Amino acid sequence: MKEGIFKGSLYDVALGINTFGALHVSGFAKNCINLKLLLHVSTAYVCGEKKGQILESTFQMEETLNGSSRLDIKAEKQLVEEYLDKLRGQGATDRAITSTMKDLGIKRARLYGWPNTYVYTKAMGEMLLGHFRENLPLVIIRPAMVSSTYKEPFSGWIEGVRTIDGVISAYGKGKLKCFIGHHETILDIIPADMVVNCMIVAMVAYANQSSEIILHVGSSWRNPIKFSSFRNLMVRYFAENPLVSKNGKSIKVDKATVVLSSMASFRAYMAIRYLMPLKAFQIANAIICQYNQDMIIDLKRKIKSGIRLAELYKPYVFFTGRFDDSNTEKLRMATSEGGVDSHLFDFDPKCIDWEDYLMNTHIPGLIKYALKI
After folding, report:
1. pTM confidence score
2. For 312-326, what is the mean pLDDT?
3. Residues with catalytic function
4. How far apart are CA 365 and CA 63, in angstroms?
5. Of 97, 169, 191, 202, which has the most beta carbons under 10 Å away?
């Protein structure tokens, strides 16, 4: 899970796929004679850390979230190329290049108001699509946090560990010592098959229409679940259904795990619990012996990795916005009125019973299909 997230946070990789990859697909689509529609999957979190009602609105070219300055996408690509040429010219290791690209992506994203590299490069991809689409029919699907399937191809199916699933996995394995997130935060979770159903219906409904349509596919507007409810259900699940360790013993989870309601409290917690003891150990090691340097380096790496993960999850667990899905609801209503079986292509989040879904579908599915336990 960590490796996948970090790979996606490399600025050169994310820029190539999420931003210019979208533009290349658009160029290819324009040369397709019988093309009906270009459907692009983005993310609802291209909005950054906006608050309140978030509309299904398009991006303008060179737009920033903080209004700081003009965003020149071509210059961003050139900047990355210059960094890479310089690093390679200096004989930098792959690890050094990877670290630099991670840091550069976050730095550039925050410069313009986005919290991380992923959503920043996704937003730039949308800008390029909108600016160069000409008369190309374009639908941009913006899903929130995609979870395991609700019904199809069967309940609970999931591949990989994403966003909030990393928290579930770490907690169930007894590795999570603190929860990061405000208890009032709305977690916008949407099953994968509902996202796919919306995509299928959108392709039929908007074919051959020379317009750009944005569709939020999420649950926060019509069927929200709070972080506190999510946490309580997760704690209850693993108390009732503990995972089994490699030695065959049940893993006991800590019900009283610390809940940190801000990044400031998380940083303080990390400093007191890990960084200060590590510093003391490092000093003692320097005085007494020299054979624990590799262990110290490994501990530093793990702590840095944990802090970086927390920064990546920050936009989701402290998010105070709710995604308006008016366009998506209109599509759903039009589909229903058009005689399409609403159960066959269901993407209505109001039908989800969060307790039942998390306890009996999502968490069991995550354990079986993603964690393979």
Report:
1. 0.85
2. 83
3. 118, 122
4. 40
5. 191
